Amino acid sequence: MFFVQIGLPDKWLVHILKSKKRASEFYKEEKKIIFSIFLFIFALGYFQPVIKYSNEKLNCQRSALNYLKNKYELKDSKKLALKMFAVNFCNGGNEINNLGVSDEIKN
Q: Is the pLDDT of residue 66 over 60?
């Protein structure tokens, strides 16, 4: 009756009802798989911002490390101190202002 009221062909009704029946049978048989796929997609969506933030932090630290090496012509012998200043810079610290005065990493 619904199909007749809105003017849709009666042939579509048979196909729609068959599809609806197949979909409900598939859901009953594959309930665990569907739930697992949904949980996996949800987990990806939940952790994606954390992964993106971490990637941006690592890129910032890499860029700051290269900048410090080039600006102050520092060697790789003081890698730990360089990394410390790069992390401090990326976290909004102002320890990099004291770098020109400090001889800690120049030696």
A: yes
